[in-house]
Design a protein that fits this description.
37% of the residues lie in helices and 13% in strands. The strands form two sheets. A five-stranded parallel beta sheet has the order 5-2-1-6-7, with helices on both faces. A two-stranded antiparallel sheet has the order 3-4. Strand 6, helix 6 and strand 7 form a beta-alpha-beta unit. The longest helix is centred in the middle third of the chain and has 16 residues.
Length: 241
């Protein structure tokens, strides 16, 4: 069984879901520290001027290093939820696919959660549903784990708990991964490679990669997005050593 692991992000980019789709079980790290400046509470879209704009969840980040990600409360929910909805309508409202996509995600901007992590988790699960990814999702907080473990040791521990015989890692984790520890545990370690597809984007002639999946959906529609996703996923070297 192949396991992959990642923090919940806010409406993640396509590569996030590629890693999810190539695993049998995907563990959402909701019991780790929030990383300042990360996509654990924000993501990027293109505004009507063709510039990158951030959708950022407002939260009480005071003392965040001493608290778990899932314990960090969201704040001013009415304000930022309405702002995100307005920004998406302003940026993509003229798309031929806006109503189709908004029907699938619009309710997320009217329902409140108590924490930043909860907002991110539900955005991940909704996009997973739209992309029709069958992978099983587990929350770190629902699994028995040693909260003193970090990075390589934490990932290895979660893989063992989930019964993995394979682990699909992102390339960014190479710098702290002790590959021999996975080999000794009988877990086949591989690294994800993913090249995002190029598609026509509103407000720009030069393609801007790495944006939220919302950008693909609003520009291409649900069916074309699923087609692009599957093609890009198949093209990647699924398990590169």
């Amino acid at each position: 069984m192949i396991v992959s692991i990642h923090q919940p992000h806010y409406f993640p980019w396509m590569g996030y879901f590629d890693k999810m789709a190539k695993a049998d079980t995907f563990i959402l790290l909701d019991d780790v520290q929030l990383e300042k400046g990360s996509y654990m509470y924000r993501n990027r879209i293109l505004n009507p001027q063709g510039k990158i704009s951030y959708l950022t969840i407002s939260g009480d980040k005071h003392g965040f290093l001493d608290r778990s990600y899932r314990e960090i409360a969201s704040t001013n929910d009415d304000v930022w939820l309405e702002k995100h909805a307005t920004e998406l309508k302003r940026s993509y409202g003229e798309s031929a696919f806006f109503e189709e996509v908004w029907d699938k995600i619009g309710d997320l901007f009217s329902k409140k959660e108590e924490t930043i992590a909860a907002y991110c988790i539900r955005s991940v699960l909704r996009l997973k549903e739209i992309l029709e990814i069958p992978t099983k999702i587990l929350l770190q907080s629902d699994l028995p784990s040693d909260d003193t473990k970090r990075k390589n040791d934490l990932v290895l521990s979660l893989c063992k708990t989930a019964g993995a015989d394979g682990y699909l890692s992102g390339n960014g984790a190479r710098k702290y991964t002790d590959e021999s520890s996975f080999e000794n545990a009988g877990i086949r370690l591989r690294y994800q490679t993913f090249q995002p597809p190029v598609y026509d984007q509103m407000h720009t002639e030069e393609f801007v990669p790495g944006l939220s999946m919302l950008d693909v959906l609003f520009n291409c529609g649900t069916e074309k997005t699923k087609e692009l996703f599957r093609e890009a996923s198949r093209a990647g070297k699924e398990f590169e050593e």
